[in-house]
Amino acid sequence: MTQQNIVFSEKALELQAKAREIADTYVRPAAAKFDKAQEYNYDAARAVAEAGLFRTFIPEEYGGYGAGVLALALVAEELAKADSGFGVAFAVNALGSFPIILGGTEEQKKHWLPQVAAGEKFVAFCLSEKFAGSDAGGLSVRAFEDGDDYVICGEKKWTTNGGVADIYSVFCVTDPTSKSRRISALVVEKGTPGFEVKKVEDKMGIRCVPVVETHFDHVRVPKANLIGGRPGVGFKHAMMTLDYARPGVAAQAVGACQGALDLANVYSNRRQQFGVPISKHEMVQKMMADMAMKTEAARQLVYAAAAGIDAVGPCPVNSKMAAMAKCFATDMAMEVATDAVQVFGGYGFMEDYPIAKFFRDAKILQIYEGTNQIQRLVIARHLVRECSELDHLQEYIPTEVQEPYLEEGEAAQKA
Ligand code: CAA
């Protein structure tokens, strides 16, 4: 348990205001069009770049504003309030950049981050595979050493921003014989021979951002692209990245909650049934009040998780907070979007209005960047560890369960 003061820097508030303006001008009005066509909104992305919003999460030394995870959350929330798909189209650049920011060498940061900050290059994160989703350690894409290069072979799945992105953080097996140092991350640039986007997925939601299969057919990259400059630290970098990025997904969920709530608010105050606006009916009032509470509770948890990371960086408490924020906010987004459709009644079921899209878009939030089952697993594992600090409470539980549980090996040793 930690207590963080949530302080919004002037820069963060400035970036939030810019994001809101772009959302109102470029994102919301075009959301239905890009959703239907399953096309990327390059106009909005250009506006985001020109407003300097990609600089939000890049440290100052590399051309960014170093505004931190809280500012990233504010920007992602504003964009997702207009269109969840565009919210992730923005935030996935942070996800793909964090391995370099958190684990890259000085040369790697200097080489790639300024281009991302300027919005000249988009980024993607290639972790998941056909047979390795929740079990992120079970990867099979291989990177073999060959002279001064690594040669990558295999397929990645569900690469968000694939095809649009220019820079890919790709997690590969470099040492299959090692349990704890199996995985390394390599940067692969678009256009590298053998690297191809093979399948663009046809999705239920977030249709304006591509999610693809990426194929690596003997893709040769120099050893200089090995993130961190040494093999075997890829899994840790992936986990740290997810700790940093999950508040961003959670913020997208808060934006989705607020976007759906706002539409339901307007609708329920205009739509009349039984001679009055439906907002005067108690059952609708209950739904609206619950939606507002869920949105605000999620928002506060997300801001606290983000502020914690900005204050102390990677640590177990922040890992737990990131998982809690991601899990809670995205569950709330699904609930709020579902109720918002309910408030809209028959109109809510029609694709003529954006409320149906909020519902379709919300589902993936509970799945990507770690399913909410995985978030609960992470939280529960942290609780088990924290239990060792609670020995002073032992006298308040039944005496017959006071003996600490010992793993098999430990029990044998004690005997
Ligand atoms: N920070 C640093 N190190 C960490 C860590 C963290 N948060 N979590 C674990 N580690 C370290 C452990 O300390 C351990 O190190 P040692 O080997 O030195 O002891 C090592 O990593 C292995 O840890 P675990 O034993 O806990 O690993 P596990 O195999 O049990 O798995 C898991 C842990 C939490 C389930 C992990 O596999 C996981 O997070 N899975 C979900 C993957 C995920 O989120 N995928 C999303 C893909 S991205 C995406 O969706 C993008 C998109 O499209 C937008």
CATH superfamily of the largest domain: Butyryl-CoA Dehydrogenase, subunit A, domain 3
**Number of beta strands:** 9
From the coordinates shown, what is the CATH architecture of the largest domain? Up-down Bundle
What small molecules does this complex bind? acetoacetyl-coenzyme A
Strand order in the sheet with the most strands: 2-3-7-6
Order of helices and strands: HHHHHHEEEEEEEHEEHHHHH
Mean pLDDT: 96
**Classification by helices and strands:** alpha+beta
Total number of distinct structural domains: 3
Percentage beta strand: 5-15%
Quaternary structure classification? single chain
Q: Can you count the helices? A: 12
CATH topology call of the largest domain: Butyryl-CoA Dehydrogenase, subunit A, domain 3
Helix content: 40-55%
Return residue spans where pLDDT drops below 50 for at least 5 consecutive residues. Answer: none
Dominant shape: globular
